[in-house]
Amino acid sequence: MLYDLIPHIINGLALGLLFALLALGFMLIIGVMEVINLAHGSLFALGAYIALVVMTPDGGLPFAFMQPYYDLPVIPRYIIALIVGPIVVGVVGMGLEICLRRTYGKDPLYGLLLTFGAAMVLEEGIREIWGSSEYALPIPRGISGGFIAGDLIYSNYRIYAAIFSAAMIGVLWVFLNKTPYGAVIKAGAHDSEMVRALGYNLKRLRLYVFAFGAALAAIAGIIMAPIWGIRPVVGVDAVVPAFVVIVLGGVGSFWGSVSAGILVGLVVGLTAAFLTDWSLLSMYLLLLAVVTFRARGLAGKASVLEA
Amino acid sequence: MQAMEYDKKQTAAWITPPMLIAFAVFATLPLWIETVGLYEYLAVEVLIWVIFAMGFNLLLGYGGLPSFGHGAFFGIGAYAFGLAQFNVWANLWFCLAAAIFVTAVIGGIAALFLSHRRGIYFALMTIAVGQIFYFIASKWTTVTGGEDGMLNIKRLPVDFGLVEFSIKSNVGLYYLTFGLFVVVTLLLWRLTNSPYGRVLRAMKQNETRVAFIGYSPRLYKWSVFTLSCAIAGLAGGLFAMAQEGAYINIMSLQWSGTIVLIVLIGGGFVSFWGPLLGVIFYFVSRDVLGAYTDTWLLWFGLIFMGLVMFKPDGLAGIWRDYIGGRKAKSEQSGNPATVASGR
Question: Who contacts A98 (Cβ-Cβ below 8 Å, separation ≥6)?
Answer without folding.
Answer: A207
